[in-house]
Amino acid sequence: MTRFLSRWSARELVVIGVFAAASKVATLVVALAGGGLNPISLMGKNLIFTTLLVVMLCKVRRPGTLLLFTVINIIVSMLLLGASVTLLPPMLLGALVAELAMWPGRRDGGVWNPVLGAAVFDVVSKVLSVGVSWLFMRENPAMMVMVVPFVAIGYLGSVGGLFSGVKAVKELRHAGIIHE
């Protein structure tokens, strides 16, 4: 464990923590400003989260970045926002699968490997979250009719976040904030 932690610089850990906090605050502001669960705010918060995720994965290119980001994000959600512990396994498994998907291209300097990681993370975590919801709502399967459209609408925002993440990385590289 010490060998794993010794490879992280303080700057990288700070970047991961700042992006985790920024994604939580930004998505919370969008959800509150949007007035709750409506399609526009649902898509907006997923768009912002995925955009920030792609930018962070381009800024910190170490194996385990997404896993650490997810752990920090879940801790903040549980402690400050009262999120359920049931979100923990789908998000951790989604981060782990995304890390494995990014492993072959980890040496590439382009933006496509982080985009692949963010896309896999979004798909796996959302599908597993729907599975956990189904597990808890087995007695009333009609409730899933309400859950699936919300997840699908949110995923449309995540797909948009992949494209806006690529644009944001391009602009941040041009500004010299992200190095290849």
Short description:
The protein is mostly helical. The chain has helices at residues 2-6, 10-33, 39-59, 65-80, 88-102, 112-136, 144-175.
Task: Provide the domain count.
Answer: 1
Low-confidence stretches: none
The average pLDDT is 87
Which structural class fits the helix and strand makeup?
mainly alpha
Order of helices and strands: HHHHHHH
Q: How many helices does DSSP assign?
A: 7
Strand content: under 5%
| Main sheet properties | none
Helix content: over 70%
Radius of gyration: 16 Å
Number of strands: 0
Spatial shape: globular
Distance between the termini: 28 Å
Explain the overall architecture.
The chain has helices at residues 2-6, 10-33, 39-59, 65-80, 88-102, 112-136, 144-175. It has 180 residues and is mainly alpha-helical. It has one domain (2-174). The two termini are 28 Å apart. The mean pLDDT is 87.
